[in-house]
Amino acid sequence: MTTVLKLGGELLEDAAAIEGAAPAIVRLAAGGPLVVVHGGGRAIDAELRARGEEPRFVDGLRVTDAAALDAVICVLAGRNNTALVAAIGAVGGRAVGLTGADGFVGRATRSGAFTAVSGERVDLGLVGQPDAPDVSLVRDLVRLGYIPVIASVGVSGSGDLLNVNADTLAGHLAAALAARRLIIAGATRGVLAPDGQTIAHLTPEDIDRMTASGAAHSGMIAKLAACRRALEGGVTEIGIVSGRGVSDFDVAEGTRIGLPASTTSRAS
Fold first, then answer.
1. Contact 206, 231 (CB under 8 A)
2. 87 — alpha (psi -120 to 50), left (phi > 0) or beta?
3. Which residues are catalytic?
4. Handedness of CA 109, 131, 2, 97 (dihedral sign)
5. CA dist., res. 106 & res. 150, Å (int)
6. CA of 264: how far to CAs of 71, 196, 255, 259, 260, in Å?
7. pTM, rounded to two decimals
8. At residue 234, does pLDDT exceed 90?
């Protein structure tokens, strides 16, 4: 059964970070079919600032005008994706770089007005919400022994490129692929309680409660929503884990998300 691994952009900030992530990706692929989805948030922010633009976010989702979309494509579909594919190949993996436009794997509908957790209505601009992604190309590549590495750029039915949140895309792809598990790897060691400790387990009800109460904020909102989508799609093993310096994602510290555990969740 397939594993979908989402790599946060903070794990791909520079050449050293990318080269460090590659062996762990190859190790994970040795255990079964693997699909990688990656973001590039901080690199995109840096690119925008270099162009004289200031990044804007609502509930962890990037507000994307034409200038921001150009930066997203430049960073994700260009530098980050190519560098990651090359690094995986250098340590023995067989990776193929894609964007959501390839084979319409990231088919999306423009989001339009968005209701934030605060209740405010915000137009996110050129942002897409995954809509019935076509995973036939991904299935073919996995069957042939390749690791698809997908940059989170989406495409509308009419061919317009859109910025798609990488967590959101990973959750939808995991569901569409009927994946066994989804791993969302970032800079933090899972979902944190108010005291700074990692919450070991969350249920869908915990996710809803944390989002509604404001306990989850910024980028964590999108991560938890992606996990919720994957659960609804039948994915049974989901984790939000630390990807900093890990050699094995199977044992990375983090939060497991799924059915109620035998112990009470600390998110209660």
1. no
2. alpha
3. 6, 9, 41, 167, 223
4. negative
5. 9
6. 44, 18, 14, 12, 8
7. 0.90
8. yes
pLDDT confidence of residue 267: 35
pLDDT tops 90 at residue 25: yes
The rounded distance, in Å, linking the Cα atoms of 165 and 231 is 18
Closest by CA position to 125, among listed 56, 58, 64: 64
Cβ–Cβ under 8 Å, residues 26 and 89: no
Extents of the domains making up the chain? 3-257
Which 8-state DSSP code applies to residue 164? -
Distance CA 163, CA 156 (A): 10
Contact 82, 97 (CB under 8 A): yes
Instruction: Tell me the CB-side half-sphere exposure of residue 190, using CA atoms within 13 A.
Output: 22
Q: Which residues of 52-79 are buried (b: 16+ CB within 10 A; e: fewer)?
A: eeebeebbbbbbbeeebbbbbbbbbbeb
Given this model, what pLDDT does residue 162 score? 97
Strand ranges in the chain using DSSP code E only, listed in sequence order: 3-7, 34-38, 57-58, 61-62, 95-99, 108-110, 113-115, 121-123, 128-130, 147-151, 153-155, 161-163, 181-186, 201-202, 237-242, 254-257
Q: Say what the pLDDT of residue 265 is.
A: 37
Q: How far apart are CA 32 and CA 179, in angstroms?
A: 11
d(CA 196, CA 186) in angstroms, rounded, equals 16
Residues making up the chain, counted from first to last: 268
Q: What is the DSSP letter of 107?
A: B
Tokens of 201: 């387990």
Strand, coil or helix: 226? helix
Identity of the residue numbered 191: V
Give the Cα separation of 248 and 27 in Å (integer). Answer: 7
Q: Which fold has domain 3-257?
A: Carbamate kinase (3.40.1160)
